[in-house]
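Appendix B. Raw example, untouched.
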Amino acid sequence: MERSIRLTDANWSEKSPLFITELDELYHYLNLPNKSGPVARLKSPDFPLLVPKSYLSRIPKGDPEHPLLLQVMPRPEEMECPPGFHTDPVGEDQLLQQGGTLRKYPGRLLIVASSICAVHCRFCFRRHLRDRLPPPDECQWTKNLAQIEADPSIHEVILSGGDPLMLADEKLAELLARLSRIRHVARLRIHTRVPVVLPQRITKALMEAMHPSDAAFDPLIVVIHVNHPAEIDETVAAALAKFRAAGIVLLSQSVLLRRVNDRVEVLAELFERLVNLGVIPYYLHQLDRVAGAAHFEVPEAEGVELIRQLRAILPGYAVPRYVRETVGETSKRLLA
């Protein structure tokens, strides 16, 4: 990979005017009520506010309790840390090898391709690890690729982060091309929230980067992270259509979140909307018990009941697996 290639294009940097990073600016942008009200001022230097204006445009002005805003605005509840909540809830700190690779499941290798996100979700299970996950440099990428090439048991590579689609187009194209030349890697999976929170990032140049002439993954799988039907507007639908037109397999994963999507009618609308857009609901995650996110937790029993109700009203392919990540297990634990 060329050393001159930047991690992100300037247009998609958090310093771009496309993003809001200050609470005062956020209050002004959404005409929120008095700061002493339901949404109080909170500084979180280790996990600062970061949200695209395109995402905020889907939130009605003056509504501090909107389910989209609850996902991205720092709140005083983040200072609480009840028993059972940790900075590393799924045990990745020890598993992540130098260079940001994670070998947890048979046949698969995960690479933290970028430590940068397009949004800071307040329930992020890696929120306390992000500073310890620097993106691989050229030397480390070479080591990572050599590791994959030397291990024929690796059939699938997963690019995670941060968000892999915050990589510069040239860097992403080069990475995919080099991975595609490793014969035993049959599948590439990209986990991303970008098409949902920053759909204008899904450009023609990005789509070309995901299909460089010497890269031919079949299938290439993109797993989008989406939690609420209000996150899916016309711009998101158009972005997803670009993936489908390119022959990319689309799956979704969601996190069950208190006051965001813990009602059957909300989840049903979300999953039906996704299916109509050609996205297969894949996982509904029980919240990873990360410090600062306890106020989002929904009891497992409620989640199981929600899945039961969803199965009664949706076709089977529209109901995701309800799962929990458990430290030390070689697969996600199926809850319902």
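End of appendix B.
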